[in-house]
Amino acid sequence: MSQSRDLQEAQAVLQQVFGYPSFRGLQAEVVAEAVAGRDALVLMPTGAGKSLCYQVPAIVRQRQGKGVTLVVSPLIALMHDQVGALEEVGVQAAFLNSSQDFEATKRIERALLAGELTLLYAAPERVTNARFQALLDSLHERGLLSLFAIDEAHCVSQWGHDFREDYLQLNLLHERYPEVPRLALTATADSHTRADMVERLQLQDAQVFISSFDRPNIRYRVVEKKDPRAQFLRFLYDEHRGDAGIVYCGSRKKVDETAEWLEQQGIKALPYHAGLDQAKRAKHQDRFLREDGVVMVATIAFGMGIDKPDVRFVAHLDLPKNIEGYYQETGRAGRDGEPANAWMAYGLADVVQQRRMIDESPAHEDFKRIQRSKLDALLALAESTDCRRQRLLAYFDEDSQPCGNCDNCLQPPAVWDATEPARMALSCIYRFQKERNQRFGAGHLIDVLRGKETDKTRQHRHQELSTWGIGRMVTETQWRAVLRQLIALGAVEVEGEYQTLCLGEAAKPVLRGEQAVKLREGTGEGKVRASKKPG
Ligand code: ADP
Ligand code: ZN
Question: Could you state a single Gene Ontology molecular function term (predicted)?
C-alpha cells in the first residue's frame, strides 16, 4: 500500500475514531512510519500526544488485517485509563495484568487469537512470563502480531531518572519477532539517555523523531530557599488559590509533614508516596484527578502518566535529581495549554544533601560521576541569571531565544560581580588544604572569612591565617550564595560525611581571574560594593 494511501487512512481514523481534525507536530510523520511497518524512536514532551502515535497506526494496521498492537507501559493506571478511553470510542482494547482473575485473562486471550483486539496493553514484566510468550508465539504464527509500542522507553536506560530492570528484557520482543515493527516513545531526551535507549533496544535503524521540548505556557521560576513554607504559601495565596497543583518533596516524611501543614492552612492537600498503602494512594490519586483544586504533595513516585490537563502549578520544595527530572515533573503542569507555573525553592542544604546521596550510594564510580555532573547542570540552571527556558532547552540540545516567560526574562535579576569574594573563598580553602592539611565545611569557612572568633577558630588558630577576616564586608547569606555558585561551577567540591570543601577542577581560572563569577544580587541585605575590596 502506498504511503499517501496509508496517511489518508490514518487521517480518517483520527477524525472518525478520535474526532480530531488534524495531526499535531510530528504525529503525522510518526504515524506514517509506523503504519508502513518501520521502526521509530519518538521523543516528544509530555502532552504532545504520543499515545495517538501508536493508537492510530494500531487501528489502521488492524483494519489491514495485521492483528494486534502490543503496548508496553510501566504504568498500570495509565493503561487502565487508555483502555477505558479507547473502548469509549469503539476501539477493541484490553490490558493484561497480574491482578486479573483467570477467567478475565482467558477471555482476553481468546479475543486476541480470534483477531478481535486492536490494542493490548501489558506491563514490561509480562514479556518474560512464559504464558504470555506462548500467547505471542501463537499470535505471531497466525500473522496477528502487528506492532510493538514501547512507552516510556527511557526506563530502559540507567542514566535516565526511572530505570526499570524489566525494560532490559524488552529486547526479547525484537529477538523473537524481528520483523514486527517497533515504536519506542519517551518524553526524556538528553543525549546520554537517547544513545542508551537506541543501544539497549537495538533501535539503530529506527527513524528518530524529535519534537521541540518547549512548553511555552509554563512559566519557570526558582527562588532562593529562606523560609520555604512561608515562601510557598505566599506563592499559593497570591497566584493559585483554589487551583490544582503538585508539590514535590524529597522524602516521604516531608511529604507527610507538608501535606498536614497545608491542611492546617486550610488548603485541600493530600500526601502521595510509595510508603502509603495501595488503597490510600489510589484514593488520593483519584481525588486529585476528579475533584477541583486538590494539591497533591508527593515524592517523585507520583505523576508519571497522570493525565490531568488543568494542573496549574508544580512546586518543588526540594531539589529534583537532575534536569530531566525537573523537566518531567514541571511538565505535568499546564497540559491544557493554559498558563501554568513551575516554582522551585532551592538552597545550599539541598545541594549538599544530594551530593551526599550520590557519594554514599553503592553505585559504580562512572555512574556517580555522571550523576554529579547532572546535578551540577541542574544547579547551574537554578543559579542562572539569564533565561531559564533557554538553558533548559539547551540541555536537550535545542537552540532558542530568551523566552519572555520565565522569572529571569520577566524580572532580570540584578547581578553583582562576586569574582573577588569567590577568589577569597578559594584561597581560604587553599590555605586550609596546603598550610594546615585540613578541610572544613561551609560554616567554618565563612567564620574565618568574616573573622568571627569561635571555639573552633581558636582551637585551630585560624586567626593567624592570611585569609582571616578578609571577607568581613560580605554577609553570611551572600557567602552562602558565593559558595553555591562555586559548587555549581565545579570550582569547589563537597566531600564526605562532614561535607567538607575542597578545590575543584574549575578553581584555577577563578583564582587566576580568568573566570568571572556573577551572582544574583543579595536579598535585601545590600550588595557588596566593588570599592570595598579587601586589602
Ligand atoms: P503524551 O503521552 O505525549 O504526554 P497524550 O498522548 O496523553 O500526550 O496527549 C495529550 C493530550 O493531547 C490528550 O488529551 C490528547 O487527546 C490530545 N491530543 C493528542 N493529539 C492530538 C491532536 N492531533 N489533536 C487534538 N488533540 C490531541
Ligand atoms: Zn526566559
Answer: DNA binding
pLDDT tens readout for residues 248-294: 999 999 999 999 999 999 999 999 999 999 999 999 999 999 999 99
C-alpha cell at 26: 510530528
CB atoms within 10 A of CB 296: 28
For ligand 1, what atom is nearest to the CA of residue 48? 3
Ligand nearest to the CA of 42: 1
Four-CA torsion 47, 48, 50, 51, nearest 10 degrees: 60
CA distance linking residue 459 with residue 413, whole number of Å: 41
What amino acid is encoded at 511 in this protein?
L
Q: Tens digits of per-residue pLDDT, 161-176?
A: 678 889 999 999 999 9
Q: CB atoms < 10 A from the CB of 129, how many?
A: 14
* Ligand 1 binding pocket includes 369 (Cβ within 6 Å): no
Distance (angstroms) between ligand 1 centre and the Cα of 6 equals 21
Q: What is the 411 CA–ligand 2 centroid distance (Å)?
A: 10
Q: CA 161, CA 190: separation in Å to the nearest integer?
A: 11
Q: How far is the CA of 404 from the centre of ligand 2 (A)?
A: 5
